[in-house]
Amino acid sequence: MPADWIITWMSVLPELYKNKCSQKIAAMQGLQWVRLPRYNRIRIESVDAEIDSITMKFGEVLASSSPAHDGVYDNNDDKGALKQLQNRLTEMAAYIRREIINIEMATGISPDYVEIGEKSPLSGGRRVTA
Q1: What would you report as the CA-atom Rg of the chain, rounded to the nearest whole angstrom?
Q2: Is the pTM of this model over 0.70?
Q3: For the stretch 18-40, what's the b/e string if a residue is b when 16 or more beta carbons lie within 10 angstroms of its beta carbon?
Q4: What is the pLDDT of residues 68-101, one digit of tens each?
Q5: I need a labelling partner for 114 at 20 to 30 A (CA). Which of 87, 103, 121, 130 fits?
Q6: Distance between CA atoms of 33 and 19, rounded to whole angstroms?
Q7: Are 94 and 35 in contact (CB under 8 A)?
């Protein structure tokens, strides 16, 4: 399939498959997939909270957490189970990052590290973003 058809092909996939495909396409480019929040950047009055999605992702992390049950990760753990746990944790991290962006875009409230970074002489006046 020609590369310029990928976006068109992905756009017709059901949402569940579209998200998984987006994650894999981003990973193939060395990127972490974070779905952009659904709002108009020009005027934002509110953004939907998506804590429910984070909660569902956390459930998937717990369901995949068997390698952690003994309290350590080591070479005795099943490699496939470790890979699955890493993938679920990475997906959850992307959803958490998006929620942080949602809050900031809707309210202007940034996490502490952003505010501290803006005042740091080490940042050279550059804004640190979530």
Answers
A1: 18
A2: no
A3: ebeebbeeeeeeeeebbeebebe
A4: 999 999 999 999 999 999 999 999 998 999 899 8
A5: 87
A6: 9
A7: yes
